[in-house]
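Entry 12.
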Amino acid sequence: MKEDNLNGGQNYLYEEIMTGIKEYINENQLQPGDRIPTEKELGKLFKASRISIRRAIKELVDEGVLKIIHGRGTFVNKKRKEIHLLHLQGFSEGLTSDNDKISKEIVSMKKISNNKKINSLFENKYNEFIELIRKVYRNEQILSLDYAYLPTAIYPNIEDKIKKESSTFKIIHDDYGIAFKTVKKELEIVPATEELQKHLNISRLTPLILVEKIIYNEHHQPVHFSEYYLISDAVKLRIENNLP
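Predicted 3D structure (tokens):
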């Protein structure tokens, strides 16, 4: 492992320590409110300098994994958010609960065209789409980055209806009279690109869960596509199916 130096040389030891602290939390089944070892103890555990330990803790605080209570120590901050993979609701609607505050931030919203991947997913029936990119927060800690694609032919002027906290699921249902009937989701573990690191405020070593979702109407025509990147250690995925 590379060690920090005082001359500005690039190294990534603190990122490896971040991963190690997360593994320590999981292996020891620490719960929100439990205190983690001190900086000195972590230094011995990972054979690292205090500079590296402090940097790793700072990054984990920024991610929302840890919180510092001055004069008391560093503590585990939160439980993972449970997400039901078979849910047909919109992504943020499926996250809502009495115990959590879910909020959204629009990163960008623009018209795009001639995108081969998106065109193909919509069976090459449409060429122009609204690309909506939003951050989703849970209790003011970032949870995911969501890219949604909406054909302008199906949803004319939808960009005028979407505001910061808007539910695209509700707009599609209420304003355009479209009912979602079936959904197809694909999951993949992916590395954090520089763009994702910037938007999600994570390190390059943080694994992400990519969920690609296509929703179909009653005629089995695709009417909505999205791909969202979940911070893996912030969520717990659930599959539930009622057998006959």
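Annotation: Confidence is low (pLDDT under 50) at residues 1-10. The two ends are 53 Å apart (CA to CA).
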